Amino acid sequence: MSSAPAISIAVETPLSDEMRAMVGELNDLLLSLTSEDACHHLTVEQMADARTTVFVARVDGKVAACGSLYRHDGDIAEVKRMYTRPDYQGLGLGRKLLDRILALAIEEGFSEAVLETGVNYDAAKRLYETSGFKVCGPILDYPEHPESLFYSRRLTAA
């Protein structure tokens, strides 16, 4: 009988070789599923900006998933760069990352969390909808696009 994998989540730099590789995988996946004009990627350099906090999930020490909080002016927090590598899907890493992102946004006093995802990303839509996000119109400065889906959620301290 195998033991449960050791899962850890921590804030990490996106500039490591491990993160560069995973973000490259994410970009390739998104571009295989969505037209380029509907992909709104942050580069790892942009992810390293002070406005962004990158959470990394590791399974048995290996980089398995990531998600980021991007701070906008005012009281809006954006969920960005959510990704779980295929070998690690089904472990609840996306939910754990999203919970950490939203907890940080609440702790920092943001009143709303928003995000953009693709219309055909079924696992992402399930995660967001079961986490209290509601479909809304275009957010921030994102253009309306037939392949984009926008979500918003009010944030309140527990």
Strand fraction: 25-35%
Radius of gyration: 15 Å
Number of helices: 4
Q: Record the strand order, biggest sheet.
A: 1-2-3-4-5-7-6
- Distance from N terminus to C terminus (CA atoms, Å) equals 38 Å
Low-confidence spans: pLDDT under 50, at least 5 residues? none
Element string (H = helix, E = strand) = EHHEEEHEHEE
Helix percentage: 25-40%
Shape: globular
Number of strands: 7
Structural class: alpha+beta
Please summarize the sheet with the most strands.
7 strands, mixed
Average pLDDT rating: 92
Description of the structure:
By secondary structure, the chain is of the alpha+beta class. It has four helices and seven strands, in the order E-H-H-E-E-E-H-E-H-E-E. It has helices spanning 17-33, 44-47, 93-107, 122-130, and strands at 7-11, 52-59, 62-71, 76-84, 112-118, 134-136, 148-154.
List keywords for this structure.
158 residues; alpha+beta; seven-stranded mixed β-sheet; 31% strand
In short:
This protein has 158 residues and is α+β, with helices and mostly antiparallel strands. It has four helices and seven strands.
